[in-house]
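Colleagues,

For the teaching module next term, I've prepared a clean inverse folding example: a structure given as tokens, and then the sequence designed for it. I'd like students to try predicting residues themselves before seeing the answer, so please don't circulate the second half yet.
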């Protein structure tokens, strides 16, 4: 089994990121830029070709408003991982059952 990571970013204005940026500024933080990515981690078998299929899945990546990458560019900034309380079972079921990504063993 192989762990595959996917980062998904809005290419249209991200109101959540904009609000977080302005809130941090109001709190006195010296913030130059803030970007938000959705992070997905999959345990898959087999891994071959999975990432390209996942990037074409409209549930994860809407081609009209998202950009998906498997590696974030390194920069001088700070990265924080914020996780939802939700377990992701609904998304896992949708990807496996409705979209046929049966190689996903867990998320």
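(Answer key — instructors only)
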């Amino acid at each position: 089994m192989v762990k595959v990571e996917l980062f998904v970013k809005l290419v249209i204005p991200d109101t959540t990121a904009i609000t977080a940026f302005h809130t941090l500024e109001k709190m006195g933080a010296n913030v130059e830029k803030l970007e938000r990515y959705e992070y997905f981690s999959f345990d898959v078998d087999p891994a071959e070709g999975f990432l390209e299929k996942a990037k074409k899945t409209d549930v994860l990546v809407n081609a009209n408003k998202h950009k998906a990458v498997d590696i974030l560019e390194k920069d001088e900034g700070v990265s924080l991982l914020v996780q939802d309380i939700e377990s992701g079972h609904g998304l896992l079921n949708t990807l496996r059952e409705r979209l046929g990504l049966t190689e996903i063993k867990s998320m």
